[in-house]
DNA sequence: TTGACTTACGAAGGAGCGCTTCATTAGTAG
DNA sequence: CTACTAATGAAGCGCTCCTTCGTAAGTCAA
């Protein structure tokens, strides 16, 4: 409804160009006839459209497919390499970066370890190194990149300023968007990491195709990301998904059950304790099993709140502990069934550690699509 | 993004027609020049567009405004009366109906009392009487109406079947949409009453203009309605907003604090007890004040869950008890401030008892707008 | 009442975009 | 080598919007 606007003939051409681009992005290389049919245009018209798109660098010809009847048809494909996107995951211990083409196809990935208590400069330098590494790996220059999309823990306000970050002390009150704009001459997007992970699941993970998704980040810290109507739901102050802050939802202290389980041998480093408990539960250790049960019991309360409030199509279990989804998913389902009106589908994430970087890329692709296909902004967003 | 599609010249005209309609709906009667400017068209083109719209019955001329410089300009207005919408609120004790024009301007309203335990036939007959009354009052015929939009308590599935309704026994498992289609030859919409009330607040009430709104239905029964991105959020199985089902959210039994307050004289009918307590608290009765405090304490938990999860722009306090918002709103705000990361604006509903009927109308208008302005469906949705 | 000024109207001519049609071309199948 | 298939490219048409310009219908001031 927002993007109905009138205009002259050139607008029609713009619309048809975008339709063509979209069809090519979705369905790979297409012949002129196929493209024309999909877009509802005649072939001669579509020819002009593709000619223009080729001139502008959005589309290129590929060799015709062989072995077909009749004269071989030209085929066109979207030039996903006419621009590039960078995704970054700023975690406590690691900074991951990835570079992708405009389709979100990942072309290079790097990782830079960083101490959680590293001062600001060190952390920013690590980001710069990670991104530079990606560019070098894929032989891409700064000018080839259009957008950088960053995910980080904590609450980031609408302007890209870090409001709150329990895990990374140096991060608090930082104008992250400003820093990034200083470092890179690209459009800057910033989002909370749980929301980006949710995005990744909804676009290429186990929740592909679902419009309303609740993503549970279960790990040493708890978090949640919401996809509503196929889009990241940030909330008015970019503070959505913070159910962990509500004591009655019992998320905040839930991981304690796993960390302090009596089965864990003394001297286990704290970051390994939960993993140990989960493994022990898998192997039948009754003490560990009980700890996991208490954990899931708490986890279920906050999760039920989200399910009851939103009635999502799917709940995805992600985050560090989701490697133990075999021990967690079934008990969680049982407890939710007792609490919820309508049970959503429940699945475990399969994307692993790259899930936030990948989500950052997907978020950028989504953003780009909006810019391209929301016909409001600007004349026509085609470049050379 | 979903509604970018190519097309020929007629599509451009369609786009421009819709733009004109939208401008006229939003900004009242406009001259040709004003209209052309808003739509970004030249005057001659806009003239043709309006000519066509007048031929089709969507638009009509009004007398030119006087006292202006230069030759008086023709003015056009959207003919909101070229179609009508019916809204119905099926409550436990009352059935309300309203008839509006396409702008949602209410032209007639009726109310039919009905016993909560009335059998199905009686209830359906009351609906029919209420609607017929509206038509008679406004001298509208069945053929003038396009759509009926119904709000009712309980959970209604996506197909319009009542899944669950604690308050109205006869309602359970009813194919309400089917019944309504049998009764009226109109397009049928069904929604939960809390969601419709939320819609009313977001379109014409205290939350006007807000995109993300949490509406609290506080009364003898508790409920919630969500507006996300300016639209009613139903959830995948139309079961959103049911936080009352979660014991830990402490909504379900919250009204008990008001009903069983020691200040209430013996013999007070149960439906008046809460009102009595709230009034007593307003007058400074310490026992009642304490009961209200306990009530708000519980109310705040479920509300905080919604605010933390969604981070809405605004929370609206509605439902029967919202008449006592002066006693409730401030304490609720205090408790939320202690729990939430970012405080949403908080307001009390002002729409009163008609809020659900009005919301039903607004929902229908919204739906109509979607049909009109989502350029996908059908050729061009213009009628005579 | 008249003349200057302002603003809208309506008709004419032109440009851009998409459509249909048809002869031509480049393959495969027998 | 011929028949068949399917895409190509050019020509001509119609629709929608644009610009331009002379005309019409008001207000304002003398």
Automatic annotation (TrEMBL), chains A, B:
Annotated Pfam families: HTH_IclR (PF09339), ROK (PF00480)
Listed InterPro entries: ATPase_NBD, ROK, Tscrpt_reg_IclR_N, WH-like_DNA-bd_sf, WH_DNA-bd_sf
Organism of provenance: Nonomuraea jiangxiensis
A GO BP annotation: regulation of DNA-templated transcription
Domain HTH iclR-type: residue ranges: 18-62
SUPFAM superfamilies reported in the protein's UniProt record: Actin-like ATPase domain, Winged helix' DNA-binding domain
Name of the protein in question: Sugar kinase of the NBD/HSP70 family, may contain an N-terminal HTH domain
UniProt keyword annotations, A-Z: Kinase, Transferase
Keyword RNA-binding: no
The keyword Heme is annotated on this UniProt entry: no
GO MF annotation list: DNA binding; kinase activity
TM region positions: none
Family indicated by similarity: Belongs to the ROK (NagC/XylR) family.
């Amino acid at each position: 409804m927002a993007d109905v606007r009138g205009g002259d003939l050139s607008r029609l051409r713009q619309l048809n160009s975008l339709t063509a681009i979209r069809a090519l992005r979705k369905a790979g290389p297409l012949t002129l006839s196929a493209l024309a049919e999909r877009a509802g245009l005649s072939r001669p018209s579509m020819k002009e459209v593709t000619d223009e798109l080729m001139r502008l660098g959005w589309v290129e010809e590929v060799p015709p497919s062989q072995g077909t009847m009749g004269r071989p048809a030209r085929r066109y494909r979207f030039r996903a390499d006419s621009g590039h996107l960078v995704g970054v995951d700023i975690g406590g211990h690691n900074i991951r970066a990835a570079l992708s083409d405009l389709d979100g196809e990942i072309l290079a990935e790097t990782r830079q370890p960083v101490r959680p208590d590293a001062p600001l400069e060190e952390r920013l330098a690590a980001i710069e190194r990670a991104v530079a590494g990606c560019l070098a790996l894929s032989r891409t220059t700064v000018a080839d990149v259009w957008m950088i999309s960053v995910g980080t823990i904590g609450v980031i306000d609408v302007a890209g300023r870090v409001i709150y970050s329990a895990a990374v002390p140096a991060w608090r009150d930082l104008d992250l968007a400003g820093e990034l704009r200083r470092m890179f001459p690209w459009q800057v997007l910033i989002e909370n990491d749980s929301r980006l992970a949710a995005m990744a699941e909804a676009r290429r993970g186990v929740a592909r195709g679902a419009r309303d998704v609740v993503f549970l980040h279960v790990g040493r810290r708890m978090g949640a990301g919401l996809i509503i109507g196929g889009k990241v739901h940030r909330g008015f102050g970019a503070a959505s998904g913070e159910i962990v802050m509500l004591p009655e939802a019992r998320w905040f202290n839930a991981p304690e059950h796993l960390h302090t389980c009596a089965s864990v041998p003394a001297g286990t480093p704290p970051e390994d304790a939960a993993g140990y408990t989960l493994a022990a539960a898998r192997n039948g250790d009754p003490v560990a099993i009980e700890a996991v049960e208490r954990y899931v019991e708490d986890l279920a309360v906050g999760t039920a709140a989200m399910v009851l409030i939103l009635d999502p199509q799917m709940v995805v279990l992600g985050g560090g502990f989701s490697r133990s989804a075999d021990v967690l998913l079934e008990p969680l389902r049982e407890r939710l069934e007792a609490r919820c009106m309508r049970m959503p589908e429940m699945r475990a994430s399969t994307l692993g550690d790259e899930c936030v970087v990948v989500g950052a890329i997907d978020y950028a692709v989504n953003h780009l699509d909006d810019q391209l296909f929301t016909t409001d902004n600007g004349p026509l967003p085609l470049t050379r």
